[in-house]
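Internal QA ticket QA-208
Title: Verify multi-chain structure generation after dependency bump
Assignee: T.L.

Test input:
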Amino acid sequence: MPYFTLVNFDENEWWVIAGFFLLLSLFLLVPRHFPPVLTFLLLLFNAQLAISVDIILGSSFPFNFYDALDTEKYEFFDFIMDSFNYTLIGYFFMYCYDKWKLRRFLWVFHFLTWIGLSLLLEWISHQLHVYHYHNWHLGYSAVAYFFIFIVYIIYLKIGKLAYQYFRETKSMKN
Amino acid sequence: MFWIVCILIFTLLTIFIWKRKNLTLFEGLAIFLLSSTINQNILNIVTVNMKLIRIPKEVNEFFEAFVYRTLVIPLLVVIFLDIYTHSKTMTGKIIVIVFWIILLTSFEYIVEHLSIFHFIRWNIWYSLMEWLFVIIASLLCHRFLYYLHTKGSR
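Actual output:
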């Protein structure tokens, strides 16, 4: 009755670990743009979205479009991927979107670049057996990423509005 | 059953938005998201890995269970935190915690009775431990938000 499973420790786990350390290093290195408390909220948004999408599309309940890593079970490195890797990728998208404040053509270019980058990372992950598709392919992922990045933008706007209200109304007691 | 879950969400949202006493929407959002993320991780572990609970594989039933876990429970946790921060005495706070753990556990058994979940080797102690964990995590998260807001820096 294992809480988390770990079948083999091979190239897919190494890919997840490498991604985790690379993204974490970037997160620590890039200059701060959002206030820390807003950064925390945005990371929570992204983690919640990542695990929701993973449960709906990838878990063995109704759809099971793909399995991640070595089995259909929820592995420890699934948890790392959902809670950190995807979370940080989403954060960097929001970071660039908000920092550069692009308009029109550049906005579309930035949006498409992130979809392309995500597809490239997913293709590499697929080659390294991180994902095992069942009735799924990268074309569907492109559509999924399109909607996910739209949701990121909506999350960012909601988060910033809520933070503004929080900062203005909440006293510093507690 | 789907409508029961929708009405529940609508009622809880109305209670939080109109009757909240202490929490801002920002704090509510953060606690909601944390609780939802923890719930989904626990759901995956107890259903897929440990097989203590079974979720129906039909799409409608799956979404009822999913929405219950990702929206209804986190909203209840947010309302808990609002009432908890409003109560001034330690006794009051402990009563709120105990009441809410019993409430969340009762909800879980009602939901099982409505066939949204099917318990296989689940027992009441797992529920009590799970909700105690979620409530402690939400309290720590609330503290952490204030730490980040006042002193925190990356």
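Spot checks passed. Residues 25-144 of chain B form one domain.
Status: verified.
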